[in-house]
Amino acid sequence: MEALDYREKSRIAFDAQAATYDMSEKGAHARGLYGHVADALVEAGLGVDGAPDVLDLGCGTGALALRLLDLVPACRIVGVDISPNMVKRARAAVDGRADIVEADSASLPFHDESFDFAFCNDSFHHYPDPERAIFETWRVLRPGGAFVIGDCALPFVSRAVMNAFIRFSHEGDVRIYSEGEMREILGTWFGSVSWRRIGLTSCVAIARKD
C-alpha cells in the first residue's frame, strides 16, 4: 500500500474521531500513556532549565500538550497533526497556550535545531515511513535534545497476528514494532535509546540526539 493511502486513511479516521476522542474508546490507549510520556519527558530533563521548545508530533486534541503546560508552564509547545479536525479541536483546547500546525510528521515545516524536546504519543504505528519521521525529528532537535515515543507494544505472537491483519485496517495503522525494531529505527540517527514496556500493550522509548 502506498504511503499516501496510509496517511489519507489516518486523516479520515482521526477527522471522524476528533469530536469524541477525549472520551471514547478510540482514544483510551493514548490517554493511558499520557502520564507515562509526561514522566519520560521529565526524566529526559524537561523542566530543568529555562523555557524549552517542545514539539508534539501527532498532537491530536492537544490534551497531552495541556498536561505538559500545567506541569512545566514555561515550556513553549508546538503541536502538529495531519487531521484538520484534530487541529481545530487542539487549537480551541490550548486557547493560545501552544501553537498548533496542520502538518505531516515526515515533512516537518521547521528549521533545523528548532526544539529541545519532541514527543509522539500513540501515533508512531501510523507512520508509513517511520525512518523519515525519525530523521525529521532528529533534524529539528537541538544537540542534546530528547525524543520520547509512547506507543503500542505486544508480545511476539499477538504482534505477529496484529501485523498480519493491520493492512486491512481502515484507520491508517501500519505496524506494531518490537523493542528491537524501534531501537534500530531510532538508533539510525539518535546516539542513545532506552525502551521500557508499560503494562501489556504499551511502551515508552527515549532517544537522545548527540
What would your notes on this structure say?
This protein is α/β, with parallel strands linked by helices and 210 residues long. Helix content is 39%, strand content 23%. It is globular, with a radius of gyration of 16 Å.
The helix-strand sequence is: HHEHEHEEHEHHEE
Number of helices: 7
Using only C-alpha atoms, the radius of gyration works out to 16 Å
The amount of helix comes to 25-40%
Largest sheet: number of strands, sense, barrel closure: 7 strands, mixed
Strand line-up in the sheet with most strands: 3-2-1-4-5-7-6
What share of residues are in beta strands?
15-25%
Q: What is the CA-CA span between the terminal residues?
A: 34 Å
> Could you list the spans in which at least 5 consecutive residues all have pLDDT below 50?
none
Report the structural category: alpha/beta
In round numbers, the mean pLDDT is 96
Write down the overall geometry.
globular
| Number of DSSP E strands | 7
